[in-house]
Amino acid sequence: MRHLAPASALVLALLATAPARAQNCNGTSTGLVPLVELGSGLHQGFPGGLFPGGGVLRPAAHDADGLRIARTVTPLDGAGNPSAEGRIVLLSIGMSNCTQEFSTWVPIANADPQKNPRVQLVDGAQGGQTAATIANPNANFWTVVQQRLTTAGATVNQVQAVWLKEANAQPTQPFPSHTQIMLPQLVQICQNLKTKYPNCRLVFVSGRTYGGYATTTLNPEPYAYETSFAFQWLVRDQIGGDPALNYDPGRGPVVAPYATWGPYLWADGLTPRCDGLIWRCQDFASDGTHPAPGAGLGRAKVAQLLNGFFRTNGLARPWYLAAGSGSTCTAAAAAAECYGRGLAGTGGIVPLLAASTPPALPSAGPFAVQLTGAAPGAPGVFVAGSARFDVGQAPLLGGWLLVQPTLAWPALTDGLGRASLAFGPLPALAAACGAVLHFQAGVVDAGAVQGVSLTPGLAVRLGS
Q1: What per-residue confidence (pLDDT) applies to 452?
Q2: Alpha helices for 297-392 (secondary structure H)
Q3: CATH 2.60.40 occupies which residues in the chain?
């Protein structure tokens, strides 16, 4: 890489009776680092990332288990028996932000011609229902969920996947105390899901959106940010073999579904995340906490994140999308996730990397790593390697090298600052199943402080 130098939530309608106040629109940043960018760096002594080791991709063994389970999801009749005319119920569980966002997504999902017509989305989330509340298996929350399933013509036996988004109201304890209080509540909620919905196989978790614009004590920053640590620890403990979260009959009694991350929703206000996500003041209602309705605003933004997740995530695609071609890869799920922080170019814009399609084996068409937001008409370079650096490990030109590079390709951006590193259709190579590559790009930029801009990293796993 030396040649680069030149070149919501929440949750709660508990304050619904309080006088409305305008958002704190000055709260555009907290300086906190999204978990996907923090990596193995620390927040008050606790590492970031979504998975153990600071990573953004599921560990190989846990991923293989998840893929195996995802492939067992099939339409079931009301009694829970496989049926071509049955249903796969994807249920939302959580508080007010959860129901507002999920219900916004439902019509988008149902209008998608690629969605499996046997998948039925049912919104079970409810305003005011915190993690502390629904951890109680006898809470009225669960009665209402049952009523909604019945109204939708579905049964408890058809619930096979859940989107879980939760938080607690009015937290006051310092970190990590409030997240340590929430963790056993999440464990109990997962156990409730398995008890009440015996065929529930997968639970996808998400923490809060940004809380920097909040004007109430419902769940402001830094609590909104720190809530995601409770979900991180939940997934960590299941990966570590906690019997209270066991999903594998080969390891003992099955008491919980397989848990993994759904879309990670937190970004630091107007500071773009590694995938470009930002949260604006207008994305929220008058309390600065609940997502605002309307095209392009908070609810719609989360709905689009949900839509992208379930259409592309390797543990959702096998059952969420209509039947397609099979895969030669049986031990890993295709994935592409951003990580780390880039280096801004002209106008303070950080260029970004994204995958054109899930890196499935085999792929139906070409697979590409796409660069956007760079200086137009400028030379640059793509680098790739099988290992990464975290932010701070390898300083480079005022930013950070995020890939331990073994391969490099020249790049030239077009008039819109875009470039693409394309590969032909990925072949059916079983030996490549589960292989992980890390990508980063740098572009010469006369308007940048160091004369170059750098993208965040992109972790790509070849899989099903």
Answers
A1: 98
A2: 298-312, 317-320
A3: 335-461
Dihedral angle of Cα 224, 229, 234, 237, to the nearest 10 degrees: -170
| C-alpha to C-alpha distance for 209 and 148, rounded to whole angstroms | 26
Cα distance between residue 356 and residue 333, in whole Å: 16
Residues of the chain with CATH 3.40.50.1110: 13-320
All residues at 6 or more sequence positions from 206 whose CB lies less than 8 Å from its CB, including other chains: 163, 164, 165, 231, 261, 262, 263, 264, 265
Q: State how far the Cα of 309 lies from the Cα of 262, in Å rounded to an integer.
A: 7
Number of other residues whose CB lies within 10 A of the CB of residue 348: 10
CATH 3.90.580.10 fits 13-320, yes or no: no
Terminal CA-CA length for the chain: 31
Amino acid at the residue 304: Q
The structure's pTM equals 0.94
* E strands in 366-428: 367-372, 379-385, 395-396, 399-400, 407-412, 419-423
* Domain 335-461 in CATH 2.60.40: yes
Position 229, amino acid: F
Q: How many CA atoms lie within 13 A of 306 on its CB side?
A: 32
- pLDDT averaged over the chain? 93
Q: How is residue 118 written in tokens?
A: 């046997």
| Tokens representing residue 153 in the block | 């013509």
Q: List pLDDT tens digits, range 345-391.
A: 999 999 999 999 999 888 888 999 999 999 999 999 999 999 999 99
Q: CA separation (Å) from 234 to 1, 115, 318?
A: 38, 29, 24
Q: Does residue 326 have a pLDDT over 70?
A: no
Measured CA to CA, the distance from residue 463 to residue 337 in angstroms comes to 14
Q: What's phi and psi for 355, nearest 5 deg?
A: -85, 140
